[in-house]
TrEMBL record:
TM region positions: none
Protein name: GreA/GreB family elongation factor
Presence of the UniProt keyword Protein biosynthesis in the record: yes
Keywords assigned: Elongation factor, Protein biosynthesis
Entry-linked InterPro entries: GreA/GreB_C_sf, Tscrpt_elong_fac_GreA/B_C, Tscrpt_elong_fac_GreA/B_fam
Domain Transcription elongation factor GreA/GreB C-terminal: 85-159
Gene Ontology biological-process annotations: regulation of DNA-templated transcription elongation
Classification via Pfam families: GreA_GreB
SUPFAM superfamilies reported for this sequence: FKBP-like
A Gene Ontology molecular function term of the record: RNA polymerase binding
Lineage: superkingdom: Bacteria
Higher taxonomy: Bacteria, Pseudomonadati, Pseudomonadota, Gammaproteobacteria, Pseudomonadales
Amino acid sequence: MDKSLLQQLVLTRLEADLQAATHAAQVAHESATHEENIAENKYDTLGLEAAYLATGQARRVEAIRQAITLWRQLQLRPFTEESGIALGALICLADEDASEQLFLLGPNGASMKLHHGERSIQVISHEAPLGKAMLGKTLGDEVILKIANGTQHFEVLWVN
């Protein structure tokens, strides 16, 4: 599986998210500054609420821009046993029921599911609990994920 193609799919999705978030921020800003939303009394909070929404949307736009920058800078390197799983790795894990799952380990800001042919690949951050648990692991290693209800165990089947 071509990791550079997966990286492009992530960037394409992030750029679409950026366009949508930018539009939402513009609409929220226009609503916050529209003359009809000027407060007439202390209980009239529509303009204030719109301003909060505009601020949140602007933060979302900035977070997506940062994620795009990180994903563009990500250098996809081949897997080596010495370094173990690292950023940019494509990992196949098997759970306790021998069910296989594919993960692309990347920088923050792009948690999503990609579809490539018949396969589904979950993009996760190296800061996510499962991402942290995978870092440094190699073929055949056990990945242990502690969750609220207990512990999940996975085996690293292959890494690209």
